[in-house]
Design brief:
351 residues, disordered N terminus, 13 helices, five-stranded parallel sheet
Length: 351
């Protein structure tokens, strides 16, 4: 019996005659905050930047691109997993143009959130502004590849949304205004409403394959563990923050279910890094790490951005030993593990 051989030959014939028979992702399109920003903040008047060493020391050419990491971030690994280029360029980066963005573009801005009040804190791009840039991108794409090809790219692309942490840590729990307006439960509903409207707007613009990012265990970030220590709570993960993340993720899961039922032809998935990241933090050695409580950069307790510069003598020599690169962001190695997990457990439906 040579059925397997004949089957392979038949598949080859089908693919040759009908190349569209197997769905292919032509582009990765990214919205969100510093978890996915590949350098848009470089072009903004904000203190929240990372376009200097030692950021990017493990990126291609050792170049600090504005990614809040020693190397690559999740959209880069996800783009590569879909057979596209190994990094997704920032839309505002003058090094790139529409020919570079046709198969991947990043609109994310470090420090932003669903809530516009969050982006106001550090003068970064509000979430709605990322949408405006995306609309501008669509126009450029149509001019570059033609209306028909642009429509195909827009509908077959995978859209990654990753934000929300700053809404709680930078806004709700730091500033009084939202706490005076909302209970934490109602604030979650408020953010979820914005997320839903954003996805519906993307749908109207032609998007069909969307990944909504859930929150990480934000109480386990080194910055929050340091704050916990100085509050006299021992410096372990802030489980109150983690419970809020879990609660919000549950609401996002419900939102995903509703959107899939409501919008014809859409496929929305929840990409949830919470459990894999918490496992890594609690059992770092099982994943090849030595340190999880503090970060590689500087003292690893509270530094990020300009407090994590090349003149700081305390920065570790090997970031692969650390779960976190700076006090708020995972190392490249962690990003790779989490991205592989997300691909296997959520984004595989788009392969």
């Amino acid at each position: 019996m040579h059925i397997p051989v004949m089957f392979l030959i038949l598949c080859h014939i089908i693919l040759t005659l009908f190349p569209g028979a197997v769905a292919k992702v032509p582009a990765i399109i990214v919205f969100g905050d510093s978890s996915v920003d590949s350098g848009n903040n470089n072009q903004l008047s904000t203190v929240l930047k990372s376009n200097f060493q030692p950021y990017g020391r493990d990126f291609y050419g050792g170049r600090p691109t504005g990614r809040f990491c020693n190397g690559r971030i999740p959209p880069d690994f996800i783009s590569e997993a879909f057979g596209l280029k190994p990094f997704v360029p920032a839309y505002l980066d003058p090094m790139y143009n529409i020919s570079d963005f046709a198969d991947g573009v990043n609109f994310a801005s470090a420090g932003t959130g669903y809530d516009t009040a969050t982006s106001d804190v550090l003068s970064v791009l509000p979430f709605w502004r990322e949408m405006e840039y995306y609309k501008e991108y669509q126009g450029k794409l149509k001019a570059h590849v033609g209306a028909a090809k642009a429509k195909q790219i827009i509908s077959e692309a995978v859209y990654l949304l990753s934000l929300g942490t700053n809404d709680f840590l930078e806004n709700y729990y730091t500033l009084p205004e939202r706490r005076n307006q909302f209970t934490v439960d109602k604030y979650q509903d408020y953010l979820g409403g914005i997320a839903g409207q954003f996805i519906k707007e993307l749908y109207k613009l032609g998007a069909r394959k969307i990944s909504l990012g859930a929150l990480p265990p934000m109480g386990c970030l080194p910055l929050e563990r340091t704050a916990d220590f100085f509050r006299g709570d021992g410096g372990e993960c802030n489980e109150n923050y983690n419970k809020v993340a879990l609660s919000f993720n549950g609401k996002l899961s419900g939102l995903v279910k509703n959107l899939n039922q409501e919008l014809s032809g859409i496929k929305v998935v929840l990409s949830n890094p919470y459990y894999i990241l918490k496992q890594i933090v609690h059992k770092p050695s099982a994943y090849g790490f030595e340190v999880a409580a503090v970060a590689c950069c500087s003292s690893g307790l509270f530094e990020m951005g300009y407090m994590c510069d090349r003149l700081n003598p305390f920065t570790c020599t090997d970031a692969n030993k650390y779960v976190f690169w700076d006090s708020f962001h995972p190392s490249q190695k962690t990003n790779k593990i989490v991205s592989d997990y997300i691909m296997k457990n959520a984004l595989h439906v788009f392969l």
